[in-house]
Amino acid sequence: MERQDIVEKVRAFNRFYLPALNLLGNHYLGSEFGVTYARIFYEIYCHEGCNAAYIAKSMNIDKGYVSRILASHEKHGFLIRVTSETDRRSQELYLTDEGKRRAEDFIVKSNQDIGGHLEGLSDRELQQLGEAVDTIVRLLKKAIW
Fold this sequence. Notes:
With 145 residues, the protein is mainly α. The protein contains six helices and two strands; from the N terminus they run ααααββαα. The chain has helices spanning 3-20, 35-46, 52-59, 63-75, 97-118, 123-144, and strands spanning 79-83, 91-95.
């Protein structure tokens, strides 16, 4: 198979996968947030005390865009910023109780949503899917990073 055939297969997979999991709209899992806004809840939840630069790098998105999302989340009472004791120029990010509730809600709903999509698969098919995902991640990490 030619490289261009693989490129087209990856693009076709993206065109299938993103809408299949409702990742293209502005209302991720029925919320008022798009997927990027919701994902930032997750990043702060899992990496409490991280900073905006960490989020921008880990999500591979523009720092200005991250800053606007963080400002919105802060304005709505979902997060607080604390000046870092080790680097006074940096601000550590923490979710408020409401922000944590939102993050936990996204995690539960996402697990339920994906689990629902997989219900029709046999144990063997689930095993194959898991192995295929591991392979995709391993190869793309090697290619991209």
